[in-house]
Amino acid sequence: MAEGVDRVADRIARTDRPFTGVSPGDLAPGVSGVDLDRPLADPSAALDELEELYLRDAVYFHHPRYLAHLNCPVVIPALLGEAVLTAVNSSLDTWDQSAGGTLIERRLIDWTAGRIGFGPAADGVFTSGGSQSNFQALLLAREEILAKATAAVLAPGHLVAPFDSRRDVMDRLRIFVSEAGHFSVRKSAKMLGLSPDAVVSVETDARKRMRPQALEWELEQCRWAGFIPMAVVATAGTTDFGSIDPLHAIANLCAESGAWFHVDAAYGCGLLVSRSRRGLLGGIERADSVTVDFHKSFFQPVSSSALVVRDRAVLAHATYHADYLNPARMVEQRIPNQVDKSIQTTRRFDALKLWMTLRIMGPDAVGALFDEVVDRAAQAWVLLTVDPRFEVVTRSQLSTLVFRYLPPEGPDRDLADGANLYAREALAASGAAVVAGTKVGGRHYLKVTLLNPQTTVDDIAHVLDLIADHAAEYVERRRTS
Ligand SMILES: Cc1ncc(COP(=O)(O)O)c(C=O)c1O
Fold first, then answer.
1. Which among 136, 184, 240 is the best mutation to test ligand 1's pocket, defined by most ligand atoms within 8 Å of the CB?
2. Protein residue closest via CA to atom 7 of ligand 1
3. Percent helix, strand, coil in the chain (nearest 5)?
4. What pLDDT digit, counting tens, does each position of 176-211 carry?
5. What is the pLDDT of residue 165?
6. 323-379 residue pLDDT tens
7. SS3 at position 229
8. Going by C-beta distance under 8 Å and a sequence separation of 6 or more, which residues neighbour residue 115?
9. What is the DSSP string of 235-277?
């Protein structure tokens, strides 16, 4: 174990670029050539092999020029928690497999609910990630609306005739999410057995925030068509643009329409501990459910996420009793079994990482790290707006930048698409930096996500130069070919 820790620490200390640029074809023969039926002589040999197959070419999120997805470098207290939790190997499904672990998870859910601004009826559970949290939220929303719809009691003033069956209702359920919302909402709708067009994309404004007027219009259309507004998913920190939907306005429309109000704060949850930007989440306390991803803006190792609900009673939709595990009598005996609230059974004690982080660093220190990357993104946005080589889509409320290289020759959009796609690939292949890509209005853009407080403005300026060089090289080649 100590040798393994030393080797990883050494590798991380020596990493001078976020990626080696290795291709799947380069690495695959080594991995497939391993004879898994013949163990190596000792752990050192296994670590040597691992160095070749994984550590040498891994993508290192702690490197200041890893600027791609919503992956964070991790804080050391969380690593300590990770080591302890995997060694003890508690499973958080039942008290008899976790004991104090259950209480620690519950305390953290209460703490998070307090930060959100929920009252004493709130509850929740840790999950594997934002996708699972969103899925569970929509499962609860579906069950709530099904219970109401079959009893013919929708929102006050919107009485709908009783439906014959769950299937009848399910086909009519609609979920509203902004066009910049996360794809896990669509995936969840499919897994929940809703109709293929159950998810309605709501228009955003120039800063990529849901337009409340557009939502109001879509809700109206929904009613006219005889559909049922099941849920509105507001995003507090969209994946691409870091935009935060107007939570109060959306909460009002949910209250009027009877739709469940879910806030996907997978990315923006770091604001819960920010001393200067907590106000950006105003209205989150009116949600029925909230997704928080500690493994994004709380600098926790994967996985660490939670679903928090305003009213613990709704979690009963995820409750099943098994004689061997959590028989119903345990509820009367007040034995705290977290499996009663979770869609998982055996479940990691991920909460311990956040616990150690809060006990060693405290919430303000975590919030300060997040504030730092948000500040840095604002500085980088200024850089981009004054740089004629690039156009930038919008100023993020969090820490992303979506931009693209513009060929100096003029507005050839296909050429610009090609140049940006090429620049991203060439940059990754060089290993000097890793950035992401996305599409805006059908066109290819580049994306930088800042989650490393050690990334400096100079790092970003350097990466912009590299991107411009690669893109210009592509344009030149196209011009002369
Ligand atoms: C806004 C948002 N919601 C949900 C998710 C899904 O989270 P996870 O990857 O932890 O499943 C993401 C991931 O990037 C996200 O950005």
1. 184
2. 130
3. 50, 15, 35
4. 999 999 999 999 999 999 999 999 999 999 999 999
5. 78
6. 999 999 999 999 999 999 999 999 999 999 999 999 999 999 999 999 999 999 999
7. strand
8. 272, 273, 363
9. EBS-TTT--B--HHHHHHHHHHHT-EEEEEETTGGGGGG-TTT
Spatial CA neighbour of 384 closest among 72, 67, 70, 73: 67
Which residues, listed in sequence order, are joined to residue 400 by a DSSP beta bridge?
449
CA of 266 to the centre of ligand 1 (A): 6
Contact between residue 204 and residue 243 where contact means Cβ atoms under 8 Å apart = yes
Bridge partner residues of 233 (DSSP): 177, 262
Q: What is the mean pLDDT of residues 216-241?
A: 97
Whether 235 is in the pocket of ligand 1, judged by its Cβ within 6 Å, is yes
- In sequence order, what E strands does 194-334 have? 199-202, 228-235, 260-265, 289-293, 305-309
Q: Per-residue pLDDT tens for 134-152?
A: 999 999 999 999 998 876 5
| φ/ψ bin of 60: left (φ > 0), alpha (ψ from -120 to 50), beta (otherwise) | beta
Is the omega angle on the peptide bond into residue 274 within 30 degrees of 0, that is, cis? no
For residue 276, which of 369, 395, 401 has the smallest C-alpha distance?
A: 369
Cβ atoms within 10 Å of 473's Cβ, excluding its own: 14
Q: Which atom of ligand 1 is nearest to the CA of 305?
A: 10
C-alpha neighbours within 13 Å on the C-beta side of residue 118: 24
Any ligand 1 atom below 6 A from CB of 182: yes
Q: How far is CA 416 from CA 93, 200, 203, 423, 474, in A?
A: 51, 31, 26, 10, 10
As a whole number of angstroms, the distance between CA 238 and CA 381 comes to 17
What six digits make up the tokens of 413?
Answer: 């959009």
Inter-axis angle of helices 413-430 and 457-480, nearest 10: 120
First-to-final CA distance of the chain: 56
User: What does the block give as tokens for 160?
Assistant: 């709908």
pLDDT in tens, 433-448: 999 999 999 999 999 9
β strands within 57-159, DSSP E: 66-67, 123-127
Q: What is this structure's pTM?
A: 0.96
pLDDT band at 168 (very low <50, low <70, confident <90, very high): confident
- Looking at residue 163, its pLDDT comes to 58
State how far the Cα of 365 lies from the Cα of 369, in Å rounded to an integer. 6
Element (H, E) at 120: none
Stretch (H or E) spanning 408 = none
**Overall residue count recorded for the chain in this entry:** 481
For residue 157, pLDDT beyond 70: no
> Phi and psi dihedrals of 231, rounded to 5?
-155, 150
Ligand 1 touching residue 301 (CB < 6 A): no
Q: How far is the CA of 334 from the centre of ligand 1 (A)?
A: 34
Spatial distance between the Cα atoms of 146 and 152, rounded to a whole number of angstroms:
10
Say which residue the tokens 């100023």 belong to.
395
